[in-house]
Amino acid sequence: MDKKRGEVGDTFYPTIIRVVVYLIFFSSIFYFVNKASTGALIYEQSYAKGVALMIDNSRPGTTFSIDYSNGYDISKKNGVDVINTVFINEEQGYIEVTFTGSQPYRYYYFSKYKIEKEFDVENKRLIIHVLEENLGAVNE
After folding, report:
1. Domain housing 51
2. pTM value?
3. Residue 24 falls within a domain, yes or no?
4. What is the pLDDT of residue 39?
5. CB–CB of 50/66 below 8 Å?
6. Residues of the chain predicted below pLDDT 50
């Protein structure tokens, strides 16, 4: 009876793998619930889509201002500098918005314009300037 021993890998490794899978699953659920509970997920999507649609429907020389008070408050609560919440990539034609500092929401637009952004922190506004057509754009 003493000579019948199980191998270490028979019960130990499947348990370790199961625990790691559970940790990954529950941490991803926790991350999503945390991001959704702050309202960051909804506002990231709405700001990214709204700005992209405004860029697509504008002409060179257009300047528009967006009330950014919700985004400002959420990013402030999460410790993110408001300047780093919006990123516009003109070459590939997308806008990224993040209020948590991780995993930004990306939305593509079709216009080939040069875009400049600025923040009016005092009035909590995002200001977008649509400049001349960017001939070096990739998306056609």
Report:
1. 39-133
2. 0.70
3. no
4. 75
5. yes
6. 137, 139-140
